[in-house]
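Why do we bother with holo predictions? Because pocket geometry can differ from the apo form. Keep that in mind while you read this record for magnesium ion.
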Amino acid sequence: MAELAPYAVTEANSRGRKIAETAPHSRSEFQRDRDRIIHSGAFRRLEYKTQVFVNHEGDLFRTRLTHSIEVAQIARSIARRLRLNEDLAEAISLAHDLGHTPFGHAGQDALNACMKAYGGFEHNLQSLRVVDLLEERYAAFDGLNLCFETREGILKHCSADNAARLGVLGERFLSNRRPSLEAQIANLADEIAYNNHDVDDGLRSGLITLEQLSTVPLVETHLHEVRHAYPALPERRVVHETVRRMINTLVSDLIQHSERNICTQGLAVVEDVRNAPALVAFSMEINEQQRALKKFLRTNLYRHYLVMRMSAKAQRIIGDLFGVFMADSRLLPPQLQPAAGQAEPDRARIVADYIAGMTDRYAIREHRRIFAVEEMPATF
Ligand code: MG
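The structure, written out:
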């Protein structure tokens, strides 16, 4: 591996873990973070959480798990090329959606609405809560006790109120400073991954068509090239080849443009990154094209009436579960029973943690167990 750039995050310049631990002997500190994330329960649950399409709609659609793996792949490639810490970029990518509710954004919006009077619900903050507190696997601490830089990367955005409560980790949102370049990479790798796989999944589902997509410049350029070079190629392969080229274009553009930005700043140490503007970025042209693609997906896929129906159903399930647990916390499973004795805001947070941790199918089953009259309470 090429030597890391002087402004990369390393074990030597890391701010370390909240609770000091002996250094690992067969891997780096950031590899240890990655490994803890992979072994967490929240990570395994990502397999059954919606990205856009609910898990039972088809085996080939992305789930939050495969999405997170794609993000990690893209982030690693970019980090390596920019001589940054690949292991950190990978750890952040794999953890970035750990706090996501079931049913994708519809679920997050519903839970946020339920939690309005109790400080709200934000999946990004929840991811941090999972790794800082909710995972119960280690004898010596709650959560995963990850390095500061991994936690900093997980917390992509944050309101001023929440930032003030978070102490050192929230500081950058109050003083308008940036996270590490590795965190900036993971953030944009997320965008590259979902824009492209949503095109692929959207086409597979039949909710959007190639013809519609050919009005989007980023797609059109590559689609035209592929069709011209391979006139007899079956449609599915045209899609894959087009998406592959789109990812390539975005990744290459991001690397080139970020390299230029980094060069102009004359960075010497990692603290310079935090004081500089955001340096990992697309060129203006590609940024415009990405925005046009996002807009297309919002209008034609995320707001497609069939997706909206699923979202409405998801919101109802989450609203119902929250309401019923708040009204009578004796319905919560035994390990959450202490919630019953808590003041309302604390009880709400326990209920929100429980709901956010559910997979799509678990939430559907739990809803059925509580609300379906034909369901006997003893069925599990
Ligand atoms: Mg994501």
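The mean pLDDT is 94.
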